[in-house]
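Hi R.,

As promised, here are both runs. First protein below:
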Amino acid sequence: MPEGDTLHRTAAGLRPYLLGRDVIAARAQGPGAVPQVQRIVGRRIDEVEAQGKNLLLRFDGGLEIRTHLRMNGSWHRYRPGERWRRPPARARLVIEVAGSVAVCFDAPVVELFEQRAERLHPSLARLGPDLLDPEFDATEALRRLRDPLRAGAEVGVALVNQRALAGIGNVYKNEVLWLERVSPFVTLASLGDETVDRLIATARRLMLANISVHAGAERVTTSGDRGAAGPLYVYGRGGRPCRRCGTPIVAARQGTDLPRTTYWCPTCQGPRP
């Protein structure tokens, strides 16, 4: 499940092979295939960047490609002629440069636009502070979470709202709330600033610890905890004992626009209201 750390590792893995190189060939296919993708042929790739859950490729001359991987998308890098690990029919975007082929598989969002339009882009322009940005603004993150329009939102829903904080997905949401002993179902208005600050800080700490891991490696939030026999504390552990108190972990769908499965301990974090 791609989250902010996955995208940052992906960008770091692609940069050595794409950055500063001219595009030799490009093609797109699938539902909503990028029109005019041939416009990037002959252009130099100037930036490969992750913003939240978006991967951005910027080209000289002012063009930009954005991909959002959602649940199943991924970027791969191959040598010319190397066999792909997924069927070619699942490739949404293929970019060839000297010595490398970058393939974006199964991404539901692939779009080409002018870089100057980024500040007006309906998704990018409204992203909250990226937790993995070296200049991450925790004060702005708190301000966004404290927006009066979010006061009644359940914290488990608010943390994955990319307009408040960019990069947190369902795995980190569950892990952070368990670590901080906060119920996913309490409202933001019921939490003090100190608690919200802790949630933000813990999410950033966990994600930073994972961006240095190889892109194909397993995400780990229990690093350094000798008593935790597994990579995660609570996510995906429905029905199994809480790693703190032994109470069976409960799972339930949460949210309305894009419901996600939430895992929590009814003893450590409290029962669902």
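And here is the second one, sequence first, then its structure tokens:
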Amino acid sequence: MAVVGKKQKTSGSKPNYFFSIISVSLVLFLLGLFGLIILQGKQLIRTSKEKIEIITEMENAAGEEGIQDVKTWLENRAFIKPGSVKYISKEKGAAMMREEFGEDFLKLDLPNPLYDVLTFNVRAKFMQPDSLARIKAALKEYPFVNDVFYQESLIDVIAKNLQEISFIALGIGVFFLLVAATLIHNTIRLALYSNRFLIKNMELVGASWEFISRPYILRSLKHGFLSAILAIGILAALLFLAQRDLPELKDMLFIPGIAVLFAVLLILGLIICGFSTYFVVNKYLKMRVDELY
């Protein structure tokens, strides 16, 4: 918190802002780390949902033309994950079964009981029981679609768990934010404690509250900015190291969400530091001189 004029520089002791900046940085870092865990946890769930395959069995009478019609229809739907539609012939399916279960599969030279199938993945937001039911109903309108299969129980479990996790994360997030604001406020209060007499003396000689508060608030905003940048830098370094050691993490990083999280940390650093300084300075201005001891 800056001191106004030469008179302010000759009075009072200078608060230790270094430890204040470090303390605020640590609090913002922990808040950001929690945000990253929640953000990437959602991304992990999203990725897992998009890996669940939907299988469409085609009737033998469908032929290449019928299969291509359904494939083209799927590829042009908004719910499809791009590039996920695949055709597996019953011959290829039998070969895959032999590879999985050994050469004894169909060793009696029985007719191939498998169907030609189209497999695809849907976008995460469509991985809901009602959305999948509509997709299944639309596919079964084709006369040469035998049936559509997906793990309904798994979809229900994912939806239920995601709802529970969202409520828990929201509660923890609000608690964490309140704790962060309290810790930052107390850190600033301790940093300004050594200047309480200077603040009161300025009021006694006729300075307005706005004149007294402005330099402290401006410096607090500067320190809040530095603290947020330091916290963001540490988080970015952690992400870089994690991505270097776990290359598969690169495809799971939700860059727009991370950018928003970093912006929120910057704004929180400015707002909490600025308001905390305003309240602390005004608290000292409202106190009587004998209460400052």
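A quick note on the second one: The CA atoms of residues 27 and 179 lie 9 Å apart. Let me know what you think.

Best,
J.
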